[in-house]
Amino acid sequence: MRQVSYAGGRFVTTDEIADALLHLVVGIASTGVPQLVEVPIVVVGAGQDVAWMTVGPSSSILSMPFSWIDEVPDFSDQVTMMRMQASYPRSTNITAGSPSQAWESTRAAPWDDDDYYGL
């Protein structure tokens, strides 16, 4: 289980949801267009619930381990739905082995002074 901190609030969710959410936030940030995201959560002593978040280009999210003794809920359908979002990154750059490998694979093309406008 993971505790996710965002915009001064915190919630607890499964590892898979936290992972999908972090990737989705990266994808949304790259579009530059804010989106509403629905996240399944657990409330200690109260069961399952849903959190809604607005996520945009400058969203910062922290996911950290959370000690959980109860049964872990099955949010696999929600994980699938998050991964099906159009803004969810499909590139291998997100999961590259190291930041330097990701940088090498996304390096910009060299500047061409003769073709300034891409014509």
Would you mind describing this structure in some detail?
This protein is an alpha+beta fold and 119 residues long. It has one domain (2-107). Helices cover 27% and strands 27% of the residues. It contains three helices and five strands; from the N terminus they run ββαβββαα. Strand 1 (2-6) and strand 2 (9-13) form a beta hairpin. Helix 1 packs parallel to helix 2. It is globular, with a radius of gyration of 18 Å. The protein starts with a strand and ends in a 14-residue tail after the last helix. The relative contact order is 0.21. The model is unreliable at 94-98 (pLDDT under 50).
Main pleated sheet: 3 strands, antiparallel
Number of helices: 3
Mean pLDDT: 83
For the record, give the distance between the C-alpha atoms at the N and C termini, rounded to a whole number.
Answer: 51 Å
Number of strands: 5
Quick one: overall form?
Answer: globular
The low-pLDDT segments are: 94-98
Number of domains: 1
Strand fraction: 25-35%
Bin the helical content. Answer: 25-40%
Which H/E pattern describes the elements? EEHEEEHH
Radius of gyration: 18 Å
In spatial order, strands of the major sheet run: 2-1-5
Q: What structural class results from the helix and strand content?
A: alpha+beta
